[in-house]
Amino acid sequence: MEIEVTRDVIAAMRAAAIAAHPREACGILTGGDRRITALVETANVHTCPQANFEIDPQALIDTHRSAREGCAQIIGYFHSHPTGAARPSQTDREMAAHDGKLWAIVAGDELMVWEDREDGFRQVPYSVA
Predict the structure, then answer these.
(1) N or C: more exposed end of the chain, with fewer CB within 10 A?
(2) What is the CATH number of the domain that holds 47?
């Protein structure tokens, strides 16, 4: 199943990845109906941000609260791989919640979207809206 990602969100993810380099950038993807319409860029609070990411818990709480109040829903998460490929790393696979959320990963000029399924990550095709 294909999803749509707005051009602005793609630009924001790429800009965040460049700005954070050599650390991993991260954020929360929001929207609805298989359409990613916004990126909530967050601090990477992991103790080793050069090789891992952890979304700021307060930002996650705030975004969940906004969604409950009728704002855009959390579709998934974004992070960058400063030195790797735009595929889930071993660490990503170990930390995944298997909750069906989307993970957008930026590595250099490459952007790939993955669905975090119970049986592991599966690549999701996307179109630019």
Answers:
(1) N
(2) 3.40.140.10
| Full domain range(s) for residue 62 | 3-128
Average pLDDT for 12-32: 97
Mean pLDDT along residues 61-68? 93
Closest CA to 127 of 34, 49, 48, 58: 34
The beta strands (E) that lie in the chain are given as 3-5, 26-32, 35-42, 73-80, 102-107, 110-117, 120-124, 126-128
User: In whole angstroms, how large is the CA radius of gyration of the chain?
Assistant: 13
Q: What is the pTM of this model?
A: 0.95
Q: How confident is the model at residue 1 (pLDDT cuts 50, 70, 90)?
A: confident
Do 97 and 79 contact (CB within 8 A), yes or no? no
Length of the chain: 129
